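[audit] Reproducing an earlier prediction to check determinism. Same input, same settings, fresh worker. If the C-alpha cells differ from the archived copy the diff job will pick it up downstream; this log only records the rerun itself.
[audit] input (164 residues):
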Amino acid sequence: MGKILYKFTLTQEEREMLVLITKNGKHSSRKVIHSLILLNSDEGSSIKRTNKEISEFLQVGERMVERIKKRFVEDGLDYALEDKPSEREYQSKSDGDFEAKLIALSCSEAPEGFARWSLRLLADKVVELEYIDSISHETVRRVLKKRIKAMEKKGMGYSPIAKW
C-alpha cells in the first residue's frame, strides 16, 4: 500500500490567521511551528516546498510535518494547530493499603549495614515482602513526599520552623 500524500489549499482567511499566529508573540511555540508547517505546505502558495525541505528548515521531523498536514485535512485547522491530547491512561500501582505499609517500613529501623533507608532500598524491600509486584524508587519517593506534605498541612510531626 502506498503512502498517502496530504495536499490542500488554504483559504484566504486561513492563510491570514496562520500568518497572524506566526507574527503575534502570544502563542505557544508548537502552535507557531504547526502554523508554519501549514503555510509552507499550502498548494495554493506560489512557493512549493517538500516535507523534507519544511522539516529541515523548521528543524522538526518529516513525520511531524506529515501528521500536521493529515490532521488539517481530516479534522480541520483548529485541530491541526493544537497538540493532540494524550489518550494514554495511567493506573496507579499504589493504593492506601500499600502506602500505609510503605510508610510504616520507612519509619522502621534501616537494614543492617545502613544508617537509614534509601528510596531504592525501600523499593527493593516492599517487593521482597510482596507488598507489590514491582515498583520504582521514583514511585516510592512520590508516596513519601505526599505523606510529608499531608503532615505539614495538618501541623503534625517535627517542624524545624515551628513557632513557639
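[audit] rerun output stored. Observation attached for the diff report: Residues 96-151 form one domain.
[audit] end
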